[in-house]
Amino acid sequence: MSDTAKLRIGSVISDAFAVFSRRPVILLGLAFVMVGIPGFIQNYAFSPLNPRGLAADFGDGLAQTIELISTIIITILTIWAQALLVLICVEDMSTGEVNVEECFNISARKFPLLLAFTFLAGAVLIIIFAALLIGMGLAVANFAEQTAQPYGVFIIVMLALLAILAVALGISALLCCVIPAMTMEDSGLVDSVRRSLYLTQGSRKRIMVILGIYVFLAMLLGGILGGGAAYFGPDVTTPYATAMQEIQYSMATTPYFLAMMVVTTLVTAIGSAIIASIYVALRKRRDGVEASDLGAIFE
């Protein structure tokens, strides 16, 4: 089959929400257990602004160390959850059925590779974004010295943030099929990266648009639920708190943490459905493989 057919953005998003609507209990339930609850525990226990958290009992230093460890654990759980949920979505799209136990076993067998990919990708991203932030920070500082226009500095900062977002979306578009290839095609780490680069070739701009829409919806959802919980939550500020401190204190309440748990659960489930939909569409476009042909791995 020719690979000249374009990836259809609308179809990919539609298929993702279709599979999500068919399996909301499974997708949201697993995302809640593997990502939502651990995230809530971390936010509640380790937020330095939470007077009931560990930071208040053990001091910021120890709490931050434990928070770093918990962040690594949650990152690993998030990657594992995405692998599991992508398998579930692909199985639903290919066979119309879901065997959670089989999907769990497949993702568990790939856990060491998922772990390696998490740390390697994380290290590369940290280096890239650190270099970008340093370079852009120097550029903003140099611009600020040469002008007294605050709005000009604001525009430069916003452009820098947009550039960082563009780089993040570009890298995500390149590597979005690594986890599906690793689990669905039983590929190794290097081969999975190569497969992702192959599958996404010719479609990366459209994938960036899809992921950009997803990021926008995730930010909108977080703003609505998180902002609402912070605004309507209990007043925990002090009489002498600054405006910024009032915002920070409002984000250290149980309603806000609960709202973020809901957001994290939804974003994880929907994001996995989108990745699965992209993978299935790219397999058809690049390999000529129909969705129904992908179900052999689950037999």
Kindly describe this structure.
With 299 residues, this protein is an all-alpha fold. It has 12 helices and no strands. Helix 2 (24-46) packs antiparallel against helix 4 (60-95) and helix 4 packs across helix 8. It is globular, with a radius of gyration of 21 Å. The model has no long low-confidence stretch (mean pLDDT 82).
Q: What distinguishing features does this structure have?
A:
mainly alpha, 299 residues
Helix and strand arrangement:
Elements: H1 9-22, H2 24-46, H3 54-58, H4 60-95, H5 100-109, H6 111-146, H7 150-175, H8 178-184, H9 189-200, H10 204-232, H11 243-250, H12 254-287
Helix pairs in contact: 1-12, 2-4, 2-12, 4-5, 4-6, 4-8, 4-12, 6-7, 7-10, 8-9, 10-12
Summarize the structure.
By secondary structure, this protein is an all-alpha fold. It has helices at residues 9-22, 24-46, 54-58, 60-95, 100-109, 111-146, 150-175, 178-184, 189-200, 204-232, 243-250, 254-287. The chain contains twelve helices and no strands.
